[in-house]
Amino acid sequence: AIVVSASKGIEAETGLRMAFENCPDLVVSDLVLPPVVADDIVKQLRSDFRTAATPLIILDSAPTVARDLTERYPHLSRLTKPCEPSRLLQEIERLLGKRLPLAH
Predict the structure, then answer these.
(1) pLDDT averaged over consecutive 10-residue blocks of the chain (104 residues)?
(2) φ, ψ at 47 (rounded to 5°)
(3) What stretches of 30-84 show up as alpha helix (H) in DSSP?
């Protein structure tokens, strides 16, 4: 598996460009990436053929906003911050349908 990561503070445009260029098996994103909110991020990922079916995990600390998103996009996964790494790994494994080796 190849992991492409973006540093903290990345802007949404850069993250979206990375997703479109790399066609990942899965995307993990914060709820808000300035200057774009998660709804716009999800909408753009879902409207592009390269990422339309890509599993997406949103990490959030605003449960009401994220709950609204998951209602509009039923195939979206949401985890509340702070999120235990083991919980994130469990969700990634569920979405990818396979067990992943733990990095040490």
Answers:
(1) 65 84 88 65 88 87 68 80 91 80 47
(2) -90, -5
(3) 38-47, 63-72
If we measure between CA atoms, which residue out of 77, 82, 103 comes closest to residue 5? 103
Instruction: Give pTM, 2 decimals.
Output: 0.78
Q: Is 84 exposed, middle or buried (0-12, 13-18, 19+ CB in 10 A)?
A: exposed
Strands (DSSP E) found in 64-103:
76-80
Task: State CA 94 to chain mean position distance.
Answer: 14
Q: What is the DSSP code (8-state) at residue 61?
A: S
> In the numeric block, which tokens belong to residue 61?
């600390």
Number of C-beta neighbours around residue 63 at 10 A: 11
From the number of C-beta atoms within 10 Å of its C-beta (0-12, 13-18, 19+), residue 19 rates as buried
